[in-house]
């Protein structure tokens, strides 16, 4: 998935995931939070050698140089763009294809995976992301990563993610993270997960 230094179009209408994620949440989460990361990133790389770089290159550069501002804005832009594609109004069924096979292989069955992923997401302290990633041994693992961190800097391939920053759920769920996570399972885009395994 190619992510550029611009705010992408959502892959569905803002009201398409209602009532699990409402248009009002997208107005803030996508229209303000995500847009701010994109605008901040543009300002940080303007008139520098990174102005034409890919977002992935900027993430790595910021990470390697311990440049928090550069890393956080680039990674949050990348993470959010990826997250929008992890959701679908046609999602939420049980995984099939390659992702279904790997979940059964690495977690025993889908219900065990779902419980482990949900528990990890609920328990992640503060702000961050819960990721399903493919490690170097080609095994799926669940990664709770703080703040803007992403599997891209850990040598792992992102497959799916869930945003558990408060701005993802404070409008619709009044900060009840577990309820938001329950709703996530009704929207998961397993087709996107299968694409990411290719």
UniProtKB/TrEMBL annotation:
Keywords: Metal-binding, Oxidoreductase. It is an enzyme of class 1 (oxidoreductase). The keyword Oxidoreductase applies. Residues 95-196 form the Manganese/iron superoxide dismutase C-terminal domain. It comes from the Bacteria. It holds the Pfam family Sod_Fe_N. The keyword Manganese does not apply. Signal peptide: none annotated. It catalyses: 2 superoxide + 2 H(+) = H2O2 + O2. Residues 6-88 form the Manganese/iron superoxide dismutase N-terminal domain. PROSITE patterns: SOD_MN. InterPro entries: Mn/Fe_SOD, Mn/Fe_SOD_BS, Mn/Fe_SOD_C, Mn/Fe_SOD_N, Mn/Fe_SOD_N_sf, SOD_C_sf. Its EC number is 1.15.1.1. GO terms for molecular function: superoxide dismutase activity. Transmembrane segments: none annotated. Destroys radicals which are normally produced within the cells and which are toxic to biological systems. Belongs to the iron/manganese superoxide dismutase family. PANTHER family: SUPEROXIDE DISMUTASE, SUPEROXIDE DISMUTASE [FE] 2, CHLOROPLASTIC. This is Superoxide dismutase.
